[in-house]
């Protein structure tokens, strides 16, 4: 597998576009389109929130029932959530407008929205935006960048990833883009993730691979403990790499799945690192667990602890907060066996041995915790299972951003 400098337009046959349609104030980019020159097998995962936005319902119906899909239309600025039958009808109108412009079936058009909950979309502006996007669709790197920028809300940077691999002699590519900065919590989040690939694979195996991968990627990140109404991850596979069809779990499937895992892990970590107001990516590794479930529960508990996140912001090696978060997680372990380390690009330091603080340097710990990416690694010495979760520090700016979000 080779990581390449690209995004959503990296695989063969995929085009993209992004522009300012007028949904947001100030001529900000707010609409994107992704289009495949050939029909795609499609997989998707969606929010676990009982309150689901209209686009989530539309896309889930298509993923479950459409013969294929070929395009995605996404707007930022308004979430089209809690908008009733009118909001759902706007999904259909958007898809119909795109279908006519692209000359594809209406049920081949996926839609996505992100932004403020409870507002109706300005559908006339949205439809005009679709008509403007189609003529500028391109497979260029620049088009992919514009699309990635156009789906951002409070994100401070665009988020992309792409890789190449070889399957039975054929070069296959996976590209992706996502958005997410706030309302981010395990079991999906206010995040939209779009992944394209030119692999030939059955719909069933594509869905199985994505469903498994989501558990170790997007479901292992948290910014603020809020699970969104809109989160969606879609994977479109158009088969244009012309590799032998992956219809069973052979070596090609495992190689493809490994690459898909890499892309989605990268995108998930980019979301966590760009958490609203964040200054650092905070990674938690749990090793030595008896079961995977135990490791996941412990890692998530630490990554969602506001006290721990605040300590990371202050570059403070306040290890008691980590052990406390592990203790109330619901997972059973022996605190007298825990070894804890902090590490970053500045080095690695042991903080606890067998549940008791070692004689470490607070100055060195602060230096290690002052990097842009910091890790807390806990070995609970009960077994061989492990898990990794990602979050960010909790800063003053998080409150400022969310206090002023609608204004």
TrEMBL record:
GO terms for molecular function: L-glutamate N-acetyltransferase activity, acting on acetyl-L-ornithine as donor. Its EC number is 2.3.1.35, 2.3.1.1. Substrate binds at residues 153, 179, 190, 276, 402, 407. Pathway: Amino-acid biosynthesis; L-arginine biosynthesis; L-ornithine and N-acetyl-L-glutamate from L-glutamate and N(2)-acetyl-L-ornithine (cyclic): step 1/1; Amino-acid biosynthesis; L-arginine biosynthesis; N(2)-acetyl-L-ornithine from L-glutamate: step 1/4. The record marks 114-115 as: Involved in the stabilization of negative charge on the oxyanion by the formation of the oxyanion hole. InterPro entries: Arg_biosynth_ArgJ (IPR002813), ArgJ-like_dom_sf (IPR016117), ArgJ_beta_C (IPR042195). Keywords: Acyltransferase, Amino-acid biosynthesis, Arginine biosynthesis, Autocatalytic cleavage, Cytoplasm, Multifunctional enzyme, Transferase. Pfam families: ArgJ (PF01960). Transmembrane segments: none annotated. HAMAP family: ArgJ (MF_01106). Heterotetramer of two alpha and two beta chains. Catalyzes two activities which are involved in the cyclic version of arginine biosynthesis: the synthesis of N-acetylglutamate from glutamate and acetyl-CoA as the acetyl donor, and of ornithine by transacetylation between N(2)-acetylornithine and glutamate. NCBIfam families: ArgJ (TIGR00120), PRK05388.1 (NF003802). Belongs to the ArgJ family. This is Arginine biosynthesis bifunctional protein ArgJ.
């Amino acid at each position: 597998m080779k990581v390449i400098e690209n995004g959503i337009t990296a695989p063969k046959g995929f085009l993209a576009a992004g522009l300012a349609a007028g949904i947001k104030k100030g001529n900000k980019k707010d609409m994107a389109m992704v289009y495949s020159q050939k029909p795609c097998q499609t997989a998707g995962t969606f929010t676990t929130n009982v309150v689901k936005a209209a686009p989530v319902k539309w896309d889930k119906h298509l993923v479950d029932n459409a013969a294929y899909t070929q395009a995605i239309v996404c707007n930022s600025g308004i979430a089209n959530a809690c908008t009733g039958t009118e909001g759902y009808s706007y999904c259909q109108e958007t898809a119909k407008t795109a279908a006519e412009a692209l000359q594809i079936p209406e049920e081949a058009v996926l839609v996505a929205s992100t932004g403020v909950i409870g507002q109706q979309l300005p559908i006339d502006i949205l439809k005009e935006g679709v008509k403007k996007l189609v003529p500028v669709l391109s497979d260029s790197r620049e088009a992919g960048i514009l699309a990635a920028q156009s789906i951002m809300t409070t994100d401070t940077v665009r988020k992309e990833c792409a890789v190449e691999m070889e399957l039975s002699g054929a070069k296959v590519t996976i590209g992706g883009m996502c958005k997410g900065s706030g309302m981010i919590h395990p079991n999906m989040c206010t995040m939209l993730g779009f992944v394209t690939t030119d692999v030939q694979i059955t719909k069933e195996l594509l869905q199985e691979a994505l469903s498994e991968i989501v558990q170790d990627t997007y479901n292992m990140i948290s910014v603020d403990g809020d699970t969104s109404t809109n989160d969606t991850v879609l994977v479109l596979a158009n088969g244009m790499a012309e590799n032998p069809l992956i219809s069973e779990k052979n070596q090609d499937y495992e190689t493809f799945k490994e690459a898909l895992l890499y892309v989605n892990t990268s995108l998930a970590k980019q979301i966590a690192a760009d958490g609203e107001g964040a200054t650092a990516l905070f990674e938690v590794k749990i090793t030595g667990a008896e079961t995977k479930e135990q490791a996941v529960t412990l890692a998530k508990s630490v990554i969602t602890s506001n006290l721990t996140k605040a300590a990371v912001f202050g570059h403070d090696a306040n290890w008691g907060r980590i052990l406390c978060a592990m203790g109330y997680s619901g997972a059973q372990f022996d605190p007298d066996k825990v070894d804890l380390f902090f590490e970053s690009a500045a080095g690695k330091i042991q903080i606890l041995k067998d549940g008791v603080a070692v004689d470490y340097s607070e100055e060195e710990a602060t230096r290690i915790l002052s990097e842009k990416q910091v890790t807390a690694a806990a070995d609970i010495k009960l077994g061989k299972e492990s898990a990794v979760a990602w979050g960010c520090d909790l800063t003053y700016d998080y409150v400022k951003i969310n206090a002023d979000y609608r204004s």
